[in-house]
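Repro case for the chain-ordering regression, as requested:
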Amino acid sequence: MGSRMIKKCWCVGLLLVFGLGTAWAAPAIKIGTHAPQSGSLAKHGIEQIKGIRLAAEDFEKKAKIKVDMIVYDDESNPQKAVSAVEKLAGVDKVNAIVGGYGSNLVGPASEASERYDTPYLTMGAVDTKLTAKKFKNFFRLNNMPGYVMAQAGAIKDIFAAKKVGVIYSSLAATTEIATTLKGLLQKGGIAVPVFEKFEKGTTNYKPILLKIKDAGCDVLVVEGYFEDYVGTIKDAKILNLPVKAYVGAWGIGTPEFVRELGNMSEYIYGTSIWERGTAPQKAKKEEAEIVANYKSKYQEDPSYIAMLGYLTGKYMLEAIVQGGGTAGTYSPEKTRNALRALDTMSPIGRVAFDEKGDPRFFTCVLFQTQQGEQVVIYPLDRAKGVARYPGVPWGGK
Amino acid sequence: MISYNTIIQSILSGLLEGGNYALYSLGLAFVFGIMQIINMAHGEFLVLGGYIAYWLLVKWGVNPLMALPVAALLAGGTSFLSYRIFIERIRTTVELNTLILTFGIGIFLSNLYLQLWSADLRSISVHWMEDPVHLGGIYISLGEIVTFVISFAAVFFLHLFLRRTKTGKAIRITAIDRDAAALSGINVERVDLLAFSIGGALAGLGGPLLGMLSFVSPNTGLHITVKAFILTVLAGVGSIPGLIVAGMMLGVGEALTVTFVSSSFRELFGFTLFLVILLARPSGLFGKRG
Amino acid sequence: MKLGNFFQITEKTAAFLTFGFVLILPVVLSFNPYYLSIFIIALILGAVSLSWNLLAGVCGQVSFGHAAFFGIGAYGSSLLVLKAGWNPFGAMIIAAFFGVMGAIIIGTPAFRLRGPYFALSILGFAEVVKLLTLNLTWLTDGSQGLFNIPALPAIRIGSMTLDFFVSRTTNYYLAAFLMLAIYLVIYFLRHSNTGLAMSAVHGDEETAAGIGVPVFRTKLLTLMVSAFCTALMGAFYAHYVHFLSPDSAFDGSWSVMPIVASLFGGMGTLIGPSIGALLITGLDEFIFKQFFETGHKLFFGILLAVVIVWTPKGLFGKSIRKK
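-- result from build under test --
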């Protein structure tokens, strides 16, 4: 007992010395986050929080301002997400909220944050409807068009495909991407003979892939999630599906993806907001720094979700400080204005928000996995290599 | 536009998947048939088997087929403990209580997996098993054949065990008439414990196969329990071999729904079939009318 | 944990105590919107549990799929408001009747089955309705869900305006009022001739039929009342949360949690299930969440098992005397 007391004294002493030495420039910032830490979206939510946590630590070091970060699990459940926001804004009185994953959760959550007049920045909700209400407190780093443009562009400009089969997971975000893509392709004169939704938890993709085969599609687009890619690629291999390219949406080419699929990940196309090394020239240094810090904190490479989480945390914290000055009264209005005024280069490209809180310059890149590396092939001005087309990890056409 | 070949290929994939459904359901059907307990933690026992095979493969490169006995043993052990600690004490009360109790155990286990192994989806990749076999215009993978055979064998041996061995007969007698069994010198408490543990072990056996064919995650369990349940009712409670036929029926039905209608109606097919069978013939396809 | 050995109260007293507690709870929580929002959900759950228990505890018919009626009510009311421009209050009532229609559709064939088979057929029904909601995109917007469901319109009583959009307090008391109304319906139903018929069916169907109780009609009527109340709460939920998706409206927890709450509170009582609902919500919020950010439901699983094994009549089952 005695030694523990002494230890405690030591800690307090150290804290005092440090506290005086660094002389915090402003009172602590309280930042709130809610994200699924359990339930169906937990995997993404946990990575997101890791990113935000690192951003808070880095910010503390750089700005010399203490950050109180409060995390609540919304259990992938909309009503819990609303409760979480109400607690953050109403009880904990945070200066701002970052986080949220899934349009189903962020939708009601952003409504609550608007009610409490608390700025809210997310990276996990792309549904177009979310910004239709023009909330003044809602901001997001990414939205739907950015994903679809990269896919449609490559299919048209690089593959010059005639027939495309699109299959998609029945979840909200993938449904919207698929529908938007279909519209864009048809407008460009490309036929979409197979356009079908499959349910979450599907284990046998062969019947749906056989439809692609019968329709004679050149390109197979799968708008889904990790398990859907693994399932469709395994089944496509078994069927030796005669297509020339396999294009997916998010989550392709991640370390987990390459680990699970091995050489079956070769030639697969995916969109990406960020993978290691895709940062624009101006943000290369920042990217390297974040990756290094992340690795030293968690002993693993950051996923794109972790990176986006980091950026949401970073921009929000900076906006709070820029808006509120040193007086210690960070006001939501000033924070919002600071976010609206933001225009900067980041590892995911140029970041700026429009009136509705949508990103003005967000675009994904389309990459192809070549020898285990993610090579950006579209848009052409950011391309690092040439697409191997036709090419699928099984024989194909 | 649907080619002949597609239909055949589709049916075949449904048959193969249906065979696996039978194994995924075996533990639940067995426990339900013998003990009238609907084990809501069934899926979690199965997922445990999947995780064990995954870690054995990742850490020591153990072939998932070799991992099968380990998975069965550990899942059976978990099942044994659940029974000894909790279920035993309320074995004789209303059915609903055991249902809620096993549901609670299921919640506990799935959240424990989340704590231990994160929410990552784990897929067991054995590359040689994913290689396609080409049979006159029809493609199947080696893995599908292997898992199908295992599934069939498990059902067959369970059936044999119940019919031919002394213990198996004791289990069956206890299921039919508990009091008579006790009078004839069978230790019915021991039989219950044994049956529940076997149910867990059978579930554990399905885990590695599920991991090889798709993936396991902390959330997979409940989904499997529900599917197992549908199949148990389709087959008719107490009919172990009926599971294979019912599984194949479900698998083929699902596959053809995708081929002829749309894949978004796949699940709907399963549940509609379930409802129709339940309402029209509650004893299932192969159960005794009663 | 055998509370029954320590004190005994009547059903009426227990109900008075419960609703008294519900009445003053917001004051204890100093009208904090966050805690109110937690307990609004608890009250919704409490009301659904009461309805579930009318069917299970009183009439002896266990359902595993009350989420079906909850979701039907939620979607029904939202669609009437969003697509047909109805007043939300009127829509809630009509949506509750949709629930009754659902009850007739599934109850008519399913009540020919007994025991677990009845329970399971309702489970299947809930899944089918959910999948239909997911796939009838033209009506329900599928997995995209319904956004911006209007709140209940403000009510003016004299100079007072009860707003349901922002205020958590008014929503809380409306939920409490609905729970009370449902309790009263159940209470009077239980003490009517129909209630006697229900108990008879619960006791033994053959004996009941023997003394002239219309078994099938009694069961169906009970399910219809139960579904009406559940759908009504579903409709309230939709207007309170302003957002629905098939996953949230037909969430399996709307089937499971009423069972859990009823078991906690005691299925042999009428008020017990709502006590159970308040209790488990409080435990989860104030105790379990303190331990883990993730996976706090782990405790919940253990607690569930412990309660079932050691107090199968519910924590208050023995303390509340039937009267």
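Ordering looks correct now. The two ends of chain A are 73 Å apart (CA to CA).
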